[in-house]
Design goal:
By secondary structure, the chain is α/β, with parallel strands linked by helices. It contains eleven helices and ten strands. Strands 1, 2, 3, 4, 5, 6, 7, 8, 9 and 10 form a ten-stranded mixed β-sheet that branches. It starts with a helix and ends in a 5-residue tail after the last helix.
């Protein structure tokens, strides 16, 4: 065998092996993957990581092995956001739970100078409408009862939520109060917790008067009879909450939709970003997720890739405007 032929054969073999390796890498399922929930256990971000991500992605065989879920609470999602931007900007196997609450904090410029452009927006797969709940034995029987207490004695009416002051849970109550004609919005006694589950315990233990959060955070407590839901901030009633009225039905035209989705580090490869977009799309279109979403009170909503990035930008601008209109931002 001539030296020239050997070199040619070696080149062909090397090219073939390289092509096979690239093909295998490109088509391999993500493995060793992690989802960061930017709050403690029991809240909406935790739900997003554990159910549509870890559970459904695993059931559908979209990831290799199990997904690690890491709870990282602090600064209304800011701790996780800065962690991803500063320390894991090129982590190919990481996604982070996001929601309208994420957009709200970005819209208020409270994430230590970081912006939406510091990450890649992957997709959303459901709308989690807002809800207002009280203890099952609460003196507040209707949403109107709670609104009157907020009007007449706001300092002594303690309302808890899983977002920081000025976050989406807080804003929902301010929007409601504004619609009800309450002038002194800063007098509303909102107490923040690092996740919805912890905030809900304050209501169940009767240390707080009312809870503002999202339907997915309330369904289990409602089914167990621990709470009474005064209203949902949705355009129509939700099947998972039998008999619960909307705020609009009770004379308060307020809708508060909290989309549920994911972002990825900014410097992931375009190929891996496309994979994450495709994976989230497949979850959103699956019957497994459809059933779980309905069970947990989520409404259909889906947006992916570039469209989702544009959508998030619009949400950030909207929250900035609302926050300024309500006097929460200059």
């Amino acid at each position: 065998m001539s030296s020239r032929f050997k070199k040619t054969l070696s080149a062909i073999l090397f090219a073939s092996i390289t092509a096979i390796s690239l093909f295998t890498t490109a088509n391999a399922k993500p493995s060793g993957v992690e989802c960061i929930a930017p709050a403690g256990a029991g809240g909406g971000w935790d739900f997003t990581c554990r159910v549509p991500a870890a559970q459904v992605m695993g059931q559908l065989g979209l990831i290799d092995g199990t997904m690690k879920v890491t709870n990282m609470s602090g600064a209304g999602g800011g701790k996780a956001f800065s962690h991803v931007v500063a320390k894991r900007s090129d982590d190919q196997n990481l996604i982070v739970a996001a929601s309208m609450a994420t957009a709200a904090r970005l819209g208020q410029n409270v994430y230590a100078g970081f912006t939406a452009a510091d990450v890649r927006w992957v997709g959303a797969l459901g709308a989690d409408y807002g809800a207002i709940a009280v203890h099952r034995d609460s003196k507040f029987k209707t949403l109107g009862d709670l609104v009157e207490a907020m009007r007449n004695d706001p300092r002594r009416t303690a309302i808890v939520g899983g977002s920081s002051a000025g976050g989406w849970d807080h804003l929902k109550m301010l929007i409601l109060a504004d619609k009800a004609g309450i002038k002194d919005l800063k007098a509303i006694n909102y107490i923040s917790f690092d996740n919805g589950g912890t905030a809900m315990l304050e209501v169940i233990s009767k240390r707080a008067d009312a809870f503002t959060g999202d339907i997915s955070e309330l369904v289990d407590y409602f089914k167990k009879g621990d709470i009474r839901i005064l209203a949902i901030l949705a355009p129509e009633r939700i099947g998972a909450l039998d008999g619960v009225q909307t705020a609009k039905e009770q004379g308060f035209d307020v809708i508060g939709a909290n989309w549920r989705g994911f972002y990825a580090p900014k410097n992931v490869s375009q190929a891996r970003y496309n994979e994450w977009v495709d994976i989230v799309r497949k979850v959103a279109e699956s019957s497994q997720w459809s059933d779980l979403a309905a069970k947990n009170g989520l409404a259909p909503f889906a947006s992916f890739g570039g469209d989702f990035e544009t959508f998030v930008g619009g949400q950030i601008d909207l929250v900035g405007k609302i926050s300024k209109d309500l006097g929460f931002m200059k």
